[in-house]
From TrEMBL:
Zn(2+) binds at residues 38, 40, 96, 99. Pfam families: Pro_CA. Transmembrane segments: none annotated. It comes from Chromobacterium sphagni. The keyword tRNA processing does not apply. InterPro entries: Carbonic_anhydrase, Carbonic_anhydrase_sf. SMART domains: Pro_CA. Keywords: Metal-binding, Zinc. This is Carbonic anhydrase.
Length: 193
């Protein structure tokens, strides 16, 4: 059986047994929190449990590396919407140790794209159009520095209110231990990465 049908079979049983009732909430984060986290599969259940969050407590935004690569991209838009429309009054950026985005090699990714059938001409066309694929696909060298960068991008965004605390954390993907890199209430930790 393919994955989609397996998911749909589970969904039918989930809905028929009314399991959804235990997750009912509204669209507003009960704890007033927006969280930008890495999409790492190890964090799907670990991150909310390690932070004491249940369904409805926070707006959870996930991407590769918990990175904000552009101040006008979809991550910043989501955070702005969370603050102005969805009553988030605090933001946490949560990256993690042993992240796949650490020291990622853009050339390696593009080589895989070619292996999977993307024509080299397509990559050349994108580069000729001024798209900096190497920078776009680049990860980070130091997770703490990456968190600091994302926090600063949020704090310095011209549409982000200055009274919103923005915290920077690193979670251990096995234990769930949270390390504070930036305390959004005004204190910065100086822990090594």
């Amino acid at each position: 059986m393919d994955r989609l049908n397996t998911l749909l079979d589970h969904n039918r049983a989930f809905v028929e047994s009314r399991e959804y009732e235990q997750y009912k909430t509204d669209k507003f984060p009960g704890k007033g929190l927006a969280v930008l986290a890495c999409m790492d599969a190890r964090l799907v259940e670990l991150l909310p449990k390690a932070m004491g969050l249940k369904n409805g407590d926070a707006k959870l935004i996930k991407n590769a590396g918990a990175l904000i690569t552009h101040p006008w991209g979809s991550v910043m838009r989501s955070l702005i919407v969370a603050v102005y429309e969805l009553r988030a009054d605090e933001i946490c950026v949560v990256a993690h140790r042993d992240c796949g985005m650490r020291a990622i090699d853009p050339k390696h990714i593009l080589d895989h794209a070619v292996e999977r059938g993307i024509p080299e001409e397509t990559i050349a066309t994108l580069r000729n159009a001024g798209i900096d694929l190497d920078n776009w696909l680049k990860g980070f060298d130091n997770v703490s520095d990456s968190v600091r960068h994302s926090v600063q991008t949020i704090r310095n965004h011209p549409l982000m209110p200055k009274d919103i605390p923005v915290h920077g954390l690193v979670i251990h993907p096995s234990t769930g231990r949270l390390e504070v890199i930036i305390n959004g209430y005004g204190e910065e930790s100086h822990t090594a990465a």
